[in-house]
Amino acid sequence: MSKTKSEEWLFEISPKKSAFEINFKELWYYRDLLMLFVKRDIVTFYKQTVLGPIWFIIQPLLTSVIQFVIFSKIADIPSDGVPYFLFVLAGNILWFYFSDCLKSVSETFTANQSIFGKVYFPRIIMPLKVIVSNLVKFSIQFVFFIIVLIYYISQGYDINPSSLMLITPILLFMTAILAMGIGMIISSLTVKYRDLNFVVTFGISLFMYITPIVYPTTLVLEKINPKYHILVYLNPLTGILDFFKYAFLGSGSIDLTYLLYSLAFGLVVLLLGVLVFNRTEKSFIDVI
Q1: For helices 168-190 and 125-154, what crossing angle results, to 10°?
Q2: Exposed, middle or buried, 38 (CB in 10 Å: 0-12/13-18/19+)?
Q3: pTM of the entire structure?
Q4: Mind listing the pLDDT tens digit for each residue in 182-236?
Q5: Could you tell me if 183 and 105 are in contact, meaning their C-beta atoms sit under 8 angstroms apart?
């Protein structure tokens, strides 16, 4: 029996043909929903606050000041010849983008179970809106970093930004896919194992200390046996942070090999994340 005009539908929801499948056409159709979620996240963050978006700046500012006092003034940790405050501020804004994305994406299923159970839309929109909304936050912090950078240069400090600054969008992309991939894996696992929520909370804090934010990579390389140097670069964030600091501060050393490793690591993790995310979204509502 043929369908009447009123019975015709716009879309037909069908199972994914491949576990790695991402329907980009469908994502484009739901782009307005994505931007609506992004706008909601940003407005919700500073709604009914006195300082509003300034809170985006206060976080890296206070963190960098405390790190400056503890790690520079008390522990006397070097910073490759640039002002320590500027050195940690550069690392902090990139780190906060990574850690905020990772934590929020890892809560995708548990935090959105009510809306997932009521209406259909591509579930991957939720991790994507986290990446985009945190990009707005990063942009504000990045402008603050540039202002501080210009201040130090105007004061005559030996800081030498280079044309490598132009690869900042690539570094951000690498940071985003890394956070999104790891977050999607954790989010899928927390559907069954809620203990991972606690692991993520303190795991991110521990991960910060093995990432060269409050100390330069060159310092670690000086302290450990050369045959263990490769262990430093197994952390995919090491290559990204080293390039970011070298581009804007002219400090430290860089190696394109380690940056390519970070890119390859991020892509593999993202593919694994999409795989487990697609598998989990089929049945998570029956489990959760």
Answers
A1: 140
A2: buried
A3: 0.88
A4: 999 999 888 888 777 788 888 898 999 999 999 999 899 988 888 888 889 999 9
A5: yes
